[in-house]
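Researcher: For the record, we're logging two predictions in this thread. I'll number them. Prediction 1 follows.
Model: Prediction 1, sequence and structure:
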Amino acid sequence: MKRTTRAVAVSAAAALLLSACGGGSNTTETPSSTGDTASAGDAAENTAEDSAAETDVEAAPADDAESTEAPVRDANAELVIWADNDRAEALKEFAKQFGDEYGITTQVQVSTDVRAQFSQAHTVGQGPDIIVGAHDWLGEFVQNGSVAPVPLADDVQAQFVPESIEATKFDGQIYGVPYATENLALMRNTDLAPNVPATMEELVAHGAELVEAGDADAPMGAPVGLVGDAYHAFPWLDAYGGGIFGQNADGGWDASKVIIDSPETIKGAEKMAWLAEEKALNVNMDGTAMAAMFAEGRLPYMITGPWSTTGAAEAGINYAISPIPEFQDGGKPLPFLGVQMFYVSSDAKNPAMAQEFVNQYVPSADLQMAMYENAGERAPALLEALEEVSAKDEDLAGFSEAGKGAPPMPNIPQMASVWQPLGQATADIIGGDDVESRLKDAQKEIVANIG
């Protein structure tokens, strides 16, 4: 349980608002609100100031802080890594160690938009050897031929959270090495809700009691808004085995198998409609309203991610993190798992050294701990590092527990066709539309978008 000192109300509420809406070094709007396939902590990770940092003897040229241009690779550098500002800072020490060990010149450069700048640089052969980014970029990169498979040994794979390894795969082939995960969980105000609810029904009943007593403004909060939020709605849709896509023979997502109108997804959406009837979900509550209400101590529970912990603490809220509760009939809401990973470019200047770095240095507790400490305090993907961090970070331990068994966010390009239509459909259902007919309409729209 997190215990904090009560802070000034106005500034604390503002901090939580920023955390929920994209403020801070490692937060952003969720994919459903951006319409992109980037993971929930991704966009702000790519808005750090643009500069280049040399990890060997010579300093790389620094770009203007306002520049959106891609870093310029030093022609003499034998291994170049692109990452956002926070991750680049954490990687300098390890890149230098690697260069010293293998007798090569290494360079870590800051990219303001790793995904876009890497894709552009790849087309002209001027990109880095390694990049750091979200796992759900993978389908696009494989489609464009810009990344190379990574031959990660079985014994090394076994050292990671299993779902994080699954997130690095496309058509059964591993294309990177994971270092961090993130997911949604239940955050509760422990002054209002001292006990972990055993079921969603228990949560809703207790929340309703608090509202009736005048101690809360809503039983529970989750971002919805008038256009919906498919990222935050997914746990309900997935609770009975439904979701968005079916899987292929390799266990990957199959865009030809859209399952949004399946009986399983419909059953989950019916639970979402029930939550709306109980006033636990509301189209008038978006991320901003939810954050303000929680900061004011007027919301006992909310569904959110690790980007909200700083704001809650600064608001002086005593809180705890736990898994999203199951329904009484066995439905188990599981959130998407987002994974951050290291990719190897398909046209790396020195592919052998690039593969050596991701295979030997990334699966180390030291590197994964450094990334945790310097890049947003996300759960390490390496089990050894995760165990070490969980022993001292109760928030992270709670989010990690909530993410057990969570499916990785689909990393296929067709996911871009899903966010907006599915988000709107969930908002309409929460607003009172018929569940089955609305999901069938969303299914048709998404299938048409995918083509």
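Researcher: Logged. Prediction 2.
Model: Prediction 2, sequence and structure:
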Amino acid sequence: MHDHQHLKTAGDPSTWIPSFSQLIQLYFVIITATAFLAATLPFLRDSILSYGKLDYPSSTTNTATATNASPAQKKPLAATPVADHGQFFVVLKTLRVPKTWFAHFYVFATLWMVYLSLDLLVYTLSSTSSTSPVLQIVPSIFISTYPSWSFLTLLNLLGIMPSHPHSLSWTPPPALLLAMSCYLIQVVRRWYESWFVERPSPQATLHIGHYLIGITFYAAMAPAIWVDTYESWVKSTVLQNQTDQHEHQSQHAIEHENLFGSLPLQTWIGFALFLWGSLHQYRCHVILANLRKPSSREASAGVQRQQEYKVPFGDWFQYLVTPHYSAEMVIYLGLYLMVSSSLSLSTSPTVPTMLYSWVWVIVNLGIVARETDQWYRTRFGDNYAEPKETVTGQQRQPKTARRAILIPFVY
């Protein structure tokens, strides 16, 4: 089924061709460095960093919440001077798209994950396993036309994606199958939320740089989940140089016979973190959406009022400025633990690819969380995060401890 001439080429120190995992790791390093530059250099920070409410030009302020704000804090964002860094950066700042395009990330991520999983399934089957029961779930049209639509086969021809020994098939370990399923659930849930839960302002925008990084991030995330485990398995079969590969294949099948029955503790911890983070992220997104929910009278009359931003309360918002970002960090930590528990320590990379992606998530969300905290302080004053009792509408919100930005007691 596959051309195996590149078995020892991808990632081999004696060649200039990187492996698939090394390319993905390099991508995460580049976007992480870019995020640091965008947060550090004033001309990039002014041009591309802000989005959504962080770039909202209205000078309206919630007077009930900003009573104790200093004159500098009460200053409208639109009146804040922006350094002039030349015509290029003026044009750069105008390259924006509607924030509603966030939904594109999750539509693409879902379809890409499904496609790549099918591609991986067929790619990792040996040419002698055409009668495998696994193939029964794959329509014959995909098998007969496989080389014409396979992204992984193209990477293999370029020497980037390694292929397995001719008579062996690769079955992802149970921990990895669980991680892949969880990631698919995550992007499908975010797709649902972006369409049916969230209520972004019609005026909110997103810089084109953010949009491109978002799309490419999800393009890299799908293979990042399984690439290390697969490459580790290929290396182990090459290093072992077994004479009886059929015996190895039978042993490989026995190891996965019970599927989720013998998962290590690390996998269960990662799965628990994933569920915990997902639950709270959904709750936080609902709270944010309800802040923008029109009254029943306005809804019945079809009135679209000007965007009014409020301070959120409830769930993790009682303790954090951006708890939906904190939950995202927990979710990706859970995915990392599940994926890393499936790796063979003897042949896996020193730093798993999923760790690179988790570092990017922390850096990216940490920067945006800091900007969000500064925006809240500018608009509502320092007291928005102080212990106090507030009244919103007919509901009295309980006192809240001073909020951390992203990580309790740390940041």
